User: Fold this.
Amino acid sequence: MHQIDRIYINGAFATPHGSEWADLHNPSTEAVIGRVRLGDAEDARAAISAAKRAFPVWSRTSKADRIDLLHRLHKAVAASASAQFAALQEEYGAPFAFGDWLAKTAGNAFLEAANTLENYEFERSIGKTQVVMQPLGVVAAITPWNANAFFLCGKMATAIAAGCTVVLKPSEMSALQTQVLVEALHEAGAPPGLFNIVNGRGDVVGAEFSVHPDVAKLTFTGSTAVGRSIMSAAAQTMKRVTLELGGKGPQIILDDADLDAAIPTAVASGLMNSGQACIAGTRILVPESRKAEILSRLKSEIAKVRVGNPKDSSVTVGPMVSKKQWDRVQGFLRSGLDEGAELLIGGEGRPDGMDAGWFVRPSVFSNVTNEMRIAREEIFGPVLSVISYESEEQAIEIANDTAYGLQAFVLSSNVERARAVAAQLDSGRVQINNAYPEANVPFGGFKQSGIGRENGVFGLEAHLESKAIVA
Assistant:
């Protein structure tokens, strides 16, 4: 049994002031595997105070000093990859290939930030005016449970590169993964107070981060509902905010698509991270002229998907993170049928032969209209909705008819045609034939998928304020 009873403040592990404990579960077995002691508002204030004290010195460091630390942080996190992978599987149930990728790449954010910083100029001239890009101050980061180390490293790296100090609240459901990461980060020898990490509840620690006057910026990845409340609270002290929120990504299969390539790609994009991904393409838009063929192929492809123990390298869909999330997915499966959609494959309950674990049957609904709940709300599970269209113009209209706009996909044998469609989609990122973007390109959403951008220069400048010095 794991017992996590320390938080990280001012460069050292400390006992929380908070006394509440939360159970940790293995979602593959439903067993309790440990407990975590949660920080409270006093712990949040202590973390902010440490970051505030560290800011004046860190904000005046040279690019060379920051780059050196970013490289040390990367090296420390990379060395912990095997331990991080084991924690991901035990505590989150990440499928083998996805978990392995997460564990090996989480620390790369520090390298990417170092590379961005290398070529960034904090001062520039406009006529006779000197424009200085100045670090904001203390940055508070709140991260979700579906890619714990990936989000923590990403938000830390950019803030540190900009000259800010950081307080972080990871999901309390990821405490084992956080512990592995913090132990690795500690080995890098960062200045005390540069980063501070408090396990705690969102409505306690996260709430304190959101309202505290000494926090200059808040960056959050999670649900749109929580993002709204954070934005409202942050507005009281005019905090800068970056919000990366929910998604309901469309995958437009154009009528010229090579289905031998498009169907496996669509399924992989829709079921990534067991469907627990804001960027997953869960609405599959298909031309009416090829609907029957596409549905047949989708059914065959989904039937091949392996669900089960994430330690099995052939498994691509693991469990839902919690009983609450499992129940949520089951509710959407019932809702789809109640609204008149046709279940092509899958359905309620666990996959055949499984009597334990929060596993879901990968499911596809056909004859879905874009007004149904399964087409409009983020399910966060391995559930896909197929919507047909008559023309390219209608496909674009359906794709954009959503409150979200985080990531979209276009599948076509003609890349130039796909680019023309992509240009008309209201989405922060559009992937053509699932080509993966470069590391430093901007990431963020349109509409209710968020505010602001992360990664590269875009993410760096989100932690800086421009100051004009006129002589």
